[in-house]
Structure formats: structure tokens, C-alpha cells
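Hi team,

Below is the intake form for Sugar phosphate transporter domain-containing protein from Rotaria sordida. Please confirm the fields before the structure is written into the shared record.

FORM ID: S-0412
PROTEIN: Sugar phosphate transporter domain-containing protein
ORGANISM: Rotaria sordida
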Amino acid sequence: MSLNEVVPEKTNVLSTERLFRDVPQGLQNYMAIVYLIIWYISSGATLFSNKYILSSFHGDVFSLGMNQLLLSILSSFIQMQIMNKISTQIHKNSPNIKNIFQDMLYIGAFRCITVILGLLALKYIVVSFVATIKASSPLFTVIISRIITGEKTGYWTNFSMIPITIGLALCSSFESSFNILGFLCALGTIFFECLQNVYSKLLISGERYRYTAVELQFWASLVASVFQLPILCYNVDILSAISSTSSILFLLYIFNGVAYHIQSFAAYAVMAYISPITHSVANTVKRALLIWLSVLIFKNQVTFLSGLGTLTVIFGVILYNEARDIEKKIGISNNSVNDTSPIVTRRGV
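The structure came back. Fields below:
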């Protein structure tokens, strides 16, 4: 069966393979909503534990980043083994190692850079300011998606990015912290995260082979750890760092790594249902929520501008959804933008 052939609708068995691949695209699917909620919760756990480890325990950025990747590799491997036990067809037609590393070379590099720059940004600037800087990700994604995948967007969709970005900037306008290194690291994180998302979308809906979310998580983390290992060895005395790690910090590392794995896996799972631009907007809404949570956790004073910013973000998201519906009706969007057509199909046999 070819990659473009969709599984017949009439079947007596709801296999695990169909559950993970043959699903309708778009956030109207209940599994997409479930993954979205998991993604939001685990993202908050990862972000705040990152900040807590770096600030309260003076944790090392490179050690924390490698910890996240290693636990992602371990968790993904266990998850794949469980899925193999459930259904032997899920990984039946996996490509060879050479093709896998060719596919994952860029994504692994992007993930390595994203992890390091994201942690460096948190080390130098506050959580809400990091989230605000990352609010411009939809703009990066629109440009990158257009260049790499040819995904077209109409004027109203492009316009909807403006209130989303401005609204998030207003959400944390009361934050006075600024550090040029942290600011540049946050900008770098946006760029490479968007590149990673676009390339990941290509692999999840690829023509030669369609990776599942857990496969993408495993191989991307493995390749990223290969890139990060020499950086870790150069900057950290590994034996000394291990011996000086307290039991509390060790448990925090475990919690942080597992939360990071769940966050990344859920993000890939959501990506199988929606386009990169919709994924970026969902990510932006998530950051708006994280800004408000950081305000509550760190007891920052809430200003009028922060409330106005939240309303502006909501307006931008509504405008975006309406613009996408209009584009579908008048035919501006191409097939890659259509959020209602199935994108996940059975692999070729």
C-alpha cells in the first residue's frame, strides 16, 4: 500500500496503528485536544523547573540540557518498546539507520541549539520576559514555512500574527529585566525552534516514511545528544558535577527530564494534526498562559497593560481561526494549510 493511500473507513478492529496514524487533522479531533492539554501542562512543569534549578540550585545549563536529552532518549525507548508489544506493525517498516540519521541530522542539531539557548535565556532573564520574546515565533514560522514547505497564507492570517505578538508583549510589559545575552539567546531559540518544527512536520507527514511522535522524539534527542556531548565535556567537569549533585537536585533533574520528554512528545503528537503555523499559534497561546502563571508564582504586580495584552492575544487567535476558515472557502490556502483533511496515512508495505 502506498503512502498516499488512506486506510479504508470500514474496519472491525481499532488497531494501535490506526490510533496513531489514521486520524483526521485539526484541533476538532478530541485526541488533538488531549495532547494539547498535556503539552501545556508539561511545558509549564519544564519551564518552571528549569528556572528553579538554574536559580535556586545554581544548576549548570549544559548539564541540565544533557539531562533532558538523555531522559528523553530513555523514556522514548521504553515507550517504543511498549508500543511494539501492543502492535508489531507500528515499527514494522522502519528505515535503516543511515536514512534515519540523514533525516534527523538537521532536527538533532536544531534541538541541541534550542535546548542550550533556551536554558541560557532563562539563566539571564526572567520567565515572563523569555516567553514574551518567544511570542514572535508565529512570524518566524510563517516565513520559514513559506520558504521550506511552500505553505501559503492570506493577508488576514498574516495580519493576525500582529495582535498575537503585540498582546504577548503587553502581557509582560511590567517586566523591567533586560540582559542582552539572554535576549539574543531567546531570539536564537525562536529561530531554531521554528526550523525544528517545520522540519519535524515534514518528517511526520513525509512521503518516504512517516515517523510517529515517539520515533521523532527518540531519534531527535539521540542525535541532539551526540552534538551536545562534546560541548558538555568542554564546559563541565562531569565527574565533579555528578559527585556534587545532591539527592534533591537529582530528583529535580529526573522530574525535569521526564516533563521535558512529555512536553516534546506531546508537541510532536499535536503537530500530526495541524499545520506548522497553527502549531506556532497554539504555542504562542501556551506562552501567554505561562506568562500569567509566572506572574502568579513569582508574585509580580499585574498591570492594566497585562490584562489588555491577554485580550489582544485572544483577539489575535480568533482572527487567525476566522482567517483560516475564509482562506479555505475562497481557495487561497493550499493543501498543506488545510486543517480538515487527513494527513496521517498508513505506511507503504
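SUMMARY LINE: Residues 16-330 form one domain.

Thanks, M.
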